[in-house]
């Protein structure tokens, strides 16, 4: 096999992606479709799911609040039925959570962030792992963490706590599942351009009492390459990890961030 052939995931992979109607998840779904994968996405936003399905009729879709274990169970059952099995799980769903001093964060906001960003990963894993162990197609799990999973992130403590936890989960699972030939990695996106990041910048600017553009420039000054990354950068890394080129990569927390120096 030529080296270049290692870079393309094999056609026909069966892929489940959570939180994938928009943003990073949608870019990952589209990337897998482009290489001939069978893709099932879920999301809490029914309107966004309908739009995604209209744009890519070959997508399988299901609605779920990933913080609800019963809804996740239903989605996984539907995905396995539609896909006929599973080769790749992308645990992508997550929310930004509140911005503010820890003493000002409401308990409900904290708990919602933990449930959506961290507990949901377990809900998918508990049902998907037994199926992944049975496939012969170099199964892999990709968990979406964040640069906030390797750096402290003041005024965003619930979010950072979940992302650090995801890295620990991935490193532990890679050891646990390695003998079953299931690879587990985390991707740590940095400052991803788009509406969601704009909302994060705006909220943090308000918390610090400064303007949006000043806050945005402060973010860029913390990045060695002085630019944001795109959803397509993250999707490309996900494809790489699912390709033959990634068959010996496991237990890694891989930053796609232009080298964020601090937050």
How much is the radius of gyration in Å?
A: 18 Å
Under CATH at level 1, the class of the largest domain stands as Alpha Beta
How would you spell out the order of helices and strands? Answer: EHEHEHEHEHEHHHE
Secondary structure category? alpha/beta
How far is the N terminus from the C terminus?
42 Å
CATH architecture of the largest domain: 3-Layer(aba) Sandwich
In total, how many beta strands?
7
Major sheet: arrangement of strands: 3-2-1-4-5-6-7
CATH topological fold name of the largest domain: Rossmann fold
Would you identify the regions where 5 or more consecutive residues have pLDDT less than 50?
none
What quaternary form is this?
Answer: single chain
Structural domain count: 2
**What is the global morphology?**
globular
Q: How many helical elements?
A: 8
On the 0 to 100 scale, the average pLDDT is 95
Main sheet overview: 7 strands, parallel
- What percentage of amino acids are in beta strands? 5-15%
Write the CATH homologous superfamily of the largest domain: NAD(P)-binding Rossmann-like Domain
């Amino acid at each position: 096999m030529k080296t270049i052939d290692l870079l393309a995931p094999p056609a026909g992979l069966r892929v489940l992606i959570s939180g994938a109607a928009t943003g990073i998840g949608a870019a990952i779904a589209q990337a897998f479709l482009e290489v001939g994968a069978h893709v099932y996405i879920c999301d809490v936003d029914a309107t966004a799911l309908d739009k995604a399905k209209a744009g890519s009729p070959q997508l399988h879709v299901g609605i779920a609040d990933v913080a609800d274990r019963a809804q996740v169970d239903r989605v996984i059952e539907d995905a396995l039925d539609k896909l006929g099995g599973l080769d790749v799980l992308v645990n992508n769903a997550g929310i930004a959570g509140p911005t503010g001093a820890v003493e000002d964060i409401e308990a409900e906001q904290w708990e919602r962030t933990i449930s959506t960003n961290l507990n949901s990963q377990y809900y998918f894993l508990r049902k998907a792992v037994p199926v992944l162990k049975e496939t012969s197609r170099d199964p892999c799990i990709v968990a979406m963490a964040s640069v906030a999973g390797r750096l402290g992130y003041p005024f965003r403590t619930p979010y950072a706590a979940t992302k650090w936890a995801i890295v620990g989960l991935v490193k532990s699972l890679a050891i646990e599942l390695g003998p079953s030939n299931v690879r587990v990695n985390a991707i740590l996106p940095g400052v991803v351009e788009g509406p969601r990041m704009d909302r994060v910048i705006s909220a943090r600017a308000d918390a610090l009492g400064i303007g949006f553009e000043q806050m945005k420039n402060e973010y860029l000054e913390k990045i060695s390459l002085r630019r944001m990354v795109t959803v397509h950068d993250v999707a490309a890394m996900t494809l790489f990890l699912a390709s033959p080129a990634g068959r010996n990569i496991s237990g890694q927390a891989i930053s796609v961030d232009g080298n964020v120096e601090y937050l």
